[in-house]
User: What shape does this take?
Amino acid sequence: MSSAASAVQTPKTFAPRIFSGIQPSGGLTLGNYLGALKRFVEKQDEGIETIYCLVDLHAITVWQDPKVLRQQTREAAAGFIAAGIDPKRSILFNQSQVSAHAELGWIFNCVARMGWMSRMTQWKDKTAGKNAEAASLGLFAYPALMAADILAYHATMVPVGEDQRQHLELTRDIAIKFNNDYDVDFFPVVEPVIEGVATRVMSLRDGTKKMSKSDPSDQTRINLTDDADTIAAKIRKAKTDPKPLPDSIDGLKDRPEARNLVNIYAALAGHSVDQVIRDFAGAQFGTFKPALADLAVATLSPITAEMSRLMADAAEIDRILADGADRADALAQPILEQVFDITGMIRSRRKPSTAFQG
Ligand code: AMP
Ligand code: TRP
Assistant: This one.
């Protein structure tokens, strides 16, 4: 067995490795913070190898102003660091700096089936009532690029919010089909990590809609760049119903807005929903909302302040992203070379040590 062969891993021996990504297509929201960032930090602090990516190639599936995209990518990087990602312990970078993503993404476009992609609910939602013919091909293909993001690192665990569950199932299908088509045991079958009370933070104006950075109304979301007064005002004006808070979780059924605010409180405080219900049973929103606003401001203000401090030095952010991209590239490149071998591409320009011998 050559040394390259012994380096090839099978699913049974994959080391735990976490990968996740966020689109820099708008500012980070409280949904991103509770559903993703806060949990990214927890995973990093558990000592698992963590790779976090600002997926700029995904962002341009919908047109982005180049200046704004650059700014938002730096701002997202600042948000990650301000929330507790340590760019020395985690790898933090932007996707376009590591070419393996686009290259493996193409290979996966050839593995994924049109039927699979057409069934993606996010694609259906994003084109519902609009002219799907006018959507970019990239928007349709984007879950295959997402699979490439993850599998280029042989990542085994992917922390995301609930909205990404179907894309992770597709990632598993792509890994399995690739392994079968080429009769190899090469890609791991990833585990979604969708946990906690805030896997789906809802809009402040409609408890049935996800809080989203792309919602046209800024009142629907809390941004990590909002100041204390703005946060308090948005929570004060959040849609609710006239009833007081119930004394059991069951009482939140059919009250999506009330449930959302209680979930947000629980996630911010690090309490269970049960605990929050016990503390606020019978309280009116006139009491609960100011308590929630205080908690949100106390949690987010230090992050906002640190973000703006970091944003004052764009060159330093770019340096951190370059360092992360170098380290990401070093992990992805040997895996990509093996994929090219497996699929029959001649790579005679490459250094010999990375060939797949499986
Ligand atoms: P995106 O902003 O769509 O790139 O999402 C980045 C990450 O944040 C993904 O893991 C999403 O699942 C998560 N996320 C986005 N919005 C929410 C939300 N409203 N609630 C919970 N998680 C969210
Ligand atoms: N599709 C994800 C979103 O919109 C972002 C993303 C891209 C991602 N690549 C990823 C998340 C890989 C996890 C892993 O939220």
The mean pLDDT is 94.
